[in-house]
Description:
By secondary structure, chain A is an alpha/beta fold. The first copy, chain A, has helices at about 5-15, 30-35, 50-60, 65-70, 80-90, 105-115, 130-140, 150-165, 180-190, 205-210, 235-245, 255-265, 275-285, 305-310, and strands at about 25, 35-40, 70-75, 95-100, 115-120, 140-145, 170-175, 195-200, 245-250, 295-300. In chain A, the strands form 2 sheets. The first copy, chain A, has a 6-stranded mixed sheet with strand order 1-2-10-7-8-9, with helices on both faces. The interface of A and B includes residues 23, 47, 86 and 268 of A.
Amino acid sequence: MVPTLEDVRKAAERIEGIVYRTPLIRNDALDAATGARVLVKAENLQRGGAFKMRGATNAIAALTPEVRARGVIAFSSGNHAIAVSTAARIFGISATIVMPSDAPRIKLETTRANGAEVITYDRIHESREEIGARLSAERGAHLIKPFDDPLVIGGQGTAGLEIADEIAPDAVFVPASGGGLAAGVALALPDARIFAVEPEGHDDIAQSLATGAIQRNPPGIRSICDGLLTEKMGELPFAIGRRRFERALSVSDRAVRRAMAFAFKHLKLVLEPSGAASLAALMEGDQDVRGMTVAVIASGGNVDAATFADALSA
Amino acid sequence: MVPTLEDVRKAAERIEGIVYRTPLIRNDALDAATGARVLVKAENLQRGGAFKMRGATNAIAALTPEVRARGVIAFSSGNHAIAVSTAARIFGISATIVMPSDAPRIKLETTRANGAEVITYDRIHESREEIGARLSAERGAHLIKPFDDPLVIGGQGTAGLEIADEIAPDAVFVPASGGGLAAGVALALPDARIFAVEPEGHDDIAQSLATGAIQRNPPGIRSICDGLLTEKMGELPFAIGRRRFERALSVSDRAVRRAMAFAFKHLKLVLEPSGAASLAALMEGDQDVRGMTVAVIASGGNVDAATFADALSA
């Protein structure tokens, strides 16, 4: 079932007190650079360092106590892993997380530090969906999908509800891969133009919108945005996005590094590459936003020191 | 005249709409490391990247239009310079800023980018107070002192008022050098124990509290905390601090770098060395805070990329 604004509102009630309300941050340099009134939704300051905590918490909170007690399973390139393991720790249940072996070290470490069992796989040659489904069947644990789940989309949308509480943006820039955050935010902000941002060369969302059917990225594409490399977007996000996404924009690694450096220098925020993709798209200027009120979702901050330092020196 | 809580309240009204309300940030790892409920007041997200914007804006807003129109002068190691130049830009008046020649490049650049005239001096051999007073007399511009001014202390105290709006902390850790922020926060939070944090080997506040009279640091002391190297604290801050500061704590460069790395990894905040001093003192554990509600003022985030990267690799 395709979720609605009502599902986002229910999620907000369910996750209150567990998930943090994150600030909207203003910056003179950013306004000057874009000609817009820009507000950065700092989801890097979210519990677990990324917006994923919203959907994971909503999905676990909605389980019956009996089902929940059997634990949860998730497959994730990183931030969903951290989120599910963090939420599982808070609810006092076990978590099994399937992660690509080349996930950033900080994401593997943080997930393990939350007490989850981490099972790694080869992102190029193995299917995480199959591994996750098999483990779920074997262990009787509930599988929390990273984006193609109405509860997860509803949870991610609460970031948009918080934006709506403070401003009425004309446009919202959102990093997108599976599309859960962008779809949820689209539900929460029905009057805003939604720009989904994806890595250059990994533009399945643009192609899916153009063709009217979900398109798949070829395997093996590399990008600095480790959190935005899903093979294809989810069916529920597509059902929402095909009506609501104004456009998909793509960003180069170089533009993302520049945005990370800008966030360091001006916003004083630590953004991971995927988390800075939306800011990169805004600052590249392919979409004219002059005179508008623009919300930029800076979706996460889980980045290794070496990757971060490299971006600053670029 | 020693300012009071009433001056802080007046400042809050005066600066509203110009100065940002900054978030209080929670973090599981920080609570676990300290055994306390810790809230980080993220003044690095303040306009101009540091709390100094509060005092500078209050001081300029309180001038009569005639005096204000003649412009302002300030002497500062950095963040007060950025703050006065930013506030002057907003009020549409000229600013002359006297800065040490070895101030961090980002602080010199940002001040100039605000349209201020920057005059550099040798921190070891020249007196910035004398230079500032001379320029003020020559140009007829109003001198905004960095801390020994009731309006500046009242303005800085608004950070404490914002904390009081959300929580009632048992203890507050505040970076201190001139003492304006720590004194203002002490006024705003009369029931909290105030810990003033200063660089190791530059512990004039500890000595001033111990002897009951303002003590002076010997010249030439180096610390990574470029914003906390004032020769001696102000008379007004001392008048407040001698009654209200529970204790002065000192932190090593190494502890400050560790705190910057912790803020990067867990809080996702960019903190400059002086801005991380309070967090460093809390995490070093010289003061037992277990079971308490603790506010930590992360006072600024204006740091060069090289200094930041260096702290991350330490």
